[in-house]
Amino acid sequence: MGQHQDVYFVPSKSQWPIVAAVVLFLTVFGAGHWLNAEPGESGFGKTFLLIGFVGVLAMFFGWFRAVIRESLAGRYNAQVDRSFRMGMMWFIFSEVMFFGAFFGALFYARLYAVPWLGGEGHGVLTHQFLWNDYAAAWGANGGNGPARIGGSFETVPPWGMPLLNTLILLTSSVTVTIAHHAIKDGHRGRVLLFLGLTVLLGASFLYFQANEYMEAYRELNLTLKSGVYGSTFFMLTGFHGMHVTLGTIMLAVMWLRELKGHFTRDHHFAFEAVAWYWHFVDVVWLGLFIFVYIL
Amino acid sequence: MAHAATHDQHDDHHHGAPKGFFARWVMSTNHKDIGTLYLVLSLIAFFIGGSFAMVIRAELFKPGLQLVQPYFFNEMTTLHALVMIFGAVMPAFVGLGNWMIPLMIGAPDMALPRMNNLSFWLLPFAFVLLLSTLFLPGGGPAGGWTLYPPLSLQGQSLAYSVFAIHLMGISSIMGAINIIATILNLRAPGMDLLKMPVFVWTWLITAFLLIAVMPVLAGAVTMLLTDKYFGTSFFNAAGGGDPVLYQHIFWFFGHPEVYIMILPAFGLISEIIPTFARKPIFGYKAMVFAVASIAFLSFIVWAHHMFAVGLPLGADIFFMYATMLIAVPTGVKVFNWVSTMWGGSMSFETPMLWAVAFVILFTIGGFSGLMLALVPADFQYHDSYFVVAHFHYVLVTGAIFAIIAGVYYWLPKWTGRMYSEFWGKVHFWNSVVWVNVLFFPQHFLGLAGMPRRIPDYNVAFANFNMVSSIGGFLFGASQLIFLGVIVHCVFFSRKQALDRVWEGARGLEWTVPSPAPHHTFEVPPLIHDEDLAHGHAVD
């Protein structure tokens, strides 16, 4: 159960939760309206979405600023620190489960849905009566289903940019760990160097990923609409890319905070939380590299 | 760590609640106020969802189309379920957990109080979003609460329902993280894990389930969203996808979800029965391990909701046996509740009446669940009123009865005044009679072949439907008594409650004054034997 404080810490009341609820509502309400808008008619959906999104950024800025100030004022005891750690751990677990849903869709489509459409197992009659010219295969020759939704396409070869991106992310995990050790040793210069390197590696990952997407759309005709292959490919790598973006921003914020001297040898949980997140993003990528690109 | 600094900006800390309405209820970091907000929201949602149910039963009173159009009827079945599940039952448990978990383990508040406030405040916005779809051109979601594609992909409302579910999911995940951090990190010294009240244990396990499956639901509905608006083919066979894939992902969430709605109910009943039987709970550890087993099994039984879609035979058989296995730990629980009462000096105050009714009626729902678990039998029962009867026995006479029992049990602790025992009992007896008139005939309707989710039916089903509707109207009306009892207790009751409201009650929450002060356990309490709900301070 660990050691206990003599007095508990309960934070003061705050306006940020209600601000967060309002801006999140504006964001999704705007998005919903925008998605349903007739072609050509933009309506207020886009405006709400934009206001909401900017509001979300402002909310994060304000909320974290308040927390950082309390933290720097030494108000958080060891018990609060443990609560934060548990919060981050379980948040990452929830993210793992979110990606699990999309990996599950990938495995199901590949192992069951597509072969069944091709007549395997109990799909015999469906195949014969509905899609008897469909030869089931994953990837370029059948991954977009019997109706060839999105037209013929080619897949991204794994040993080019995806391999490079794998090496980039693996390296960034090493650099962020070196930065962590440097914080513990109190070497600020080394922290700034290696944390900065990590940010750059994250940004270059995103740059290559964006290039890969453009190539997929322009030259390979592999799009989000390329049947279930395109759906799983872009949703998995896309959500991963969003997480890398978020992670890179968070790492950059940590770099700025280190520059301002916020972290001490013993107190740098924010940095550790971001590092955990970064490792999680890295592990997800390894899963993607194996199951989406190679296999 | 400087302790002097822990009371920062706490001008109100020692003087009770903040003065301003906005500051107190909207900017709150107080687990009791946030718990109250959750409970009030839940009560409102209970009546909104209930009014939808009244529309359904009114239309089904007679064969033929009398009152509403079929599309509106379908909106009612869909929204009734979504509002009751995400608006009434889940927030009620989170509200009870918020109020009681810190009091039961000697914590000052939840571990992350500001996030706690955000968890609550996302919900009203999510429900505004969801219910506003009723006024959209083309109407709200009408494909059933499970949102199966391709039906759910029709109409404009999908985007709003999906975003509402995203908001509710964020709220649930944050709430669950908070509960886990509170229980694992803020227990008073001496409150070992295996000395915690069963209610706290069930919430710990429920919170784990929530964090594990709410993201999966978010993923599933995100796929619906992209299938409709961005041209993906997850659930489109022409593009290599499969509508059954949605059902797999949905029920991977959905089955743990139904345990999310019953495990805290088990916890409530496990607190109430020992109090009024004046005996410690029978088999405390078995109760904890049974809940853990049920939670584990909930991850490997999901496809029993899908027996009729044409799964491979091996899958049918696996999911059938795994499902039947759940009866074992559930049986342990029912056995232990009965054994707790056995030989106790029982008294039947209102909370106990609800708890005893729970044990009997939930078990009926359990048995019909066992019938549905059998693949060959399920081919017959699937999507019939038998299923409707089954899940209303576990959700209404199960989850809702337990919530009501919990409210009667702790209402005096919250308000400092006693509710009217007479009207509580009137509420109970009306509810328990009419709920059976409402749902029991639905078993027979289902066995006779009446499908669920239809506004019209064969005249052969007329009599039982009329009986069921009468039960429904009277059960619905009985809940107005509940509202009256609560309003009376909160605003008008003169009868002071004792600190230990029930003489047989054990546990830390009864050591604080009634009403519980705005801040409790600012310093970790010393735990004595009588402060533990079950067991002894020193074994």
Task: Summarize the structure in short.
Chain A is mainly alpha-helical.
What does this structure look like?
- The complex is a heterodimer of chains A (295) and B (539).
- Chain A is mainly α.
- Chain A has 2 domains: 1-76, Helix Hairpins; 78-294, Cytochrome c oxidase, subunit III, four-helix bundle (Four Helix Bundle (Hemerythrin (Met), subunit A)), CATH 1.20.120.80.
- Chain A is 72% helix and 0% strand.
- Chain A contains 8 helices and no strands.
- Chain A is globular and about 70 Å long.
- The model of chain A is unreliable at 1-5 (pLDDT under 50).
- Chain B has 539 residues and is mainly alpha-helical.
- Chain B has one domain: Cytochrome C Oxidase, Chain A (Up-down Bundle), CATH 1.20.210.10.
- Chain B contains 16 helices and no strands.
- The two termini of chain B are 33 Å apart.
- Mean pLDDT of chain B is 94; it is low at 1-13.
- At the A-B interface, helix 1, helix 3 and helix 7 of A face helix 4, helix 5, helix 6 and helix 7 of B.
Secondary structure blueprint with pairings:
The complex is a heterodimer of chains A (295) and B (539).
Chain A lengths: L15 H20 L9 H28 L5 H40 L6 H7 L30 H25 L2 H33 L6 H33 L9 H26 L1
Helix pairs in contact in A: 1-2, 3-7, 3-8, 5-6, 5-8, 6-7, 7-8
Chain B lengths: L20 H5 L5 H29 L10 H36 L7 H20 L24 H29 L12 H32 L13 H18 L2 H15 L6 H14 L15 H13 L1 H15 L8 H24 L1 H7 L3 H31 L5 H27 L14 H31 L47
Helix pairs in contact in B: 2-3, 2-4, 2-16, 3-4, 3-5, 3-14, 4-5, 5-6, 6-7, 6-8, 6-9, 8-11, 8-12, 8-14, 9-11, 11-12, 12-14, 12-15, 14-15, 15-16
Top CATH class of chain B: Mainly Alpha
Structural class of chain B: mainly alpha
Helix count of chain A? 8
Q: What average pLDDT do the residues of chain A reach? A: 94
Q: What do we call the CATH topology of the largest domain in chain A? A: Four Helix Bundle (Hemerythrin (Met), subunit A)
Order of helices and strands of chain B: HHHHHHHHHHHHHHHH
CATH architecture label of chain B: Up-down Bundle
* CATH topology annotation of chain B: Cytochrome C Oxidase, Chain A
Strand content of chain B: under 5%
Q: Quaternary arrangement of the chains shown?
A: heterodimer
Q: What would you give as the CATH superfamily of the largest domain in chain A?
A: Cytochrome c oxidase, subunit III, four-helix bundle
Largest interface: A-B, 81 and 92 residues
Q: What Rg of chain A, in angstroms, do the CA atoms define?
A: 23 Å
Largest sheet of chain B: none
The succession of helices and strands of chain A, N to C, reads HHHHHHHH
First CA to last CA of chain B: what distance?
33 Å
Q: N- to C-terminal separation of chain A?
A: 45 Å
Question: Largest sheet of chain A, described in full?
Answer: none
Tally of DSSP β-strands of chain A: 0
Question: What is the correct CATH architecture of the largest domain in chain A?
Answer: Up-down Bundle
